[in-house]
Sequence to fold (315 residues):
Amino acid sequence: MGGNFLDSFDKNKLNETINNAVKYLKKNQKKDGSVMLNKDTRWQVWETANSLLAVISSGEKEKKFIDKTLNFLLKAQRQDGSFSYTLSYDKDNYCMETTSTCLLVLEKLKQDVTKCIEFILNKQKNDGSWEIGIPEMIKHRFWPSITGHVLYSLLLLNISNENISKGFDYLFKKQLTDGSWGSSWIYYDTPYYSTYVILPALKLYGLENDERFNKCIKFIEKNQNKDGSWCIDTTDKPRPSKSLRTSLALNSLLISPRKSNKNIINNGINWLINNQRKDGSWDGGYFVNWPGKKEDILATSYAIRSISKFRESFN
Fold:
């Protein structure tokens, strides 16, 4: 990206922002190693995996937190190698996005991922897609973000075979004319939930200069708000927050930053930093399907990853 992206930013401020956010996640770690808000266990494994991925991405030296969180995830893994979004050992109640995210974490921490990879590969459908797996999710069981999560995880592990090419064939068929893959209230009510995993997968597959990749980048750029954020204000609605959506949009753009979107990225990071709360977190809003389910842990995890990725330009 080049240092010129950071002319208006103080590296110490970025470090402080990330450090305070990591402290927030640490404060919400439970005795069993999981990370969740209060005692809300509904997405316990999903939130823990994303928290751990964020702390690893931050570069903060948090060995105790990492070891304890990893131990929880290893206990949450089922015999077939999969994970559910919450603690569940029902073989039919797996979550493909949680499994893919846990695969990333396990690989980064040098754990055995053989069973996890086999489970994922065996679940691919004939059209190249993967389904979510959660039994109670009746609508949008084959949303593009699911296949995006899988492809990104597999490619980071240098797995490239016919499963991968079939997956991209599926995604290209699902890409909309505006360059996005659409949004669904089930998947955080924003198109950037899909783009933040599909774009890095495309880059790893060597398609960073492909017109379909660039079309998606342009879609994200043109939908930024004047204040630097993305998506409408949702403070009066039971929806995921603007902070969560903005972090996902930034994670998407930071996959392939260009001189042409320097100001867009800078303005987004500036908005995100200015909207961090005193306790180090970001407001996550709510998960639509479960009234009262706050998304602060997830929003903070995504924000850490986007700001950490931005900070890498100093090095």
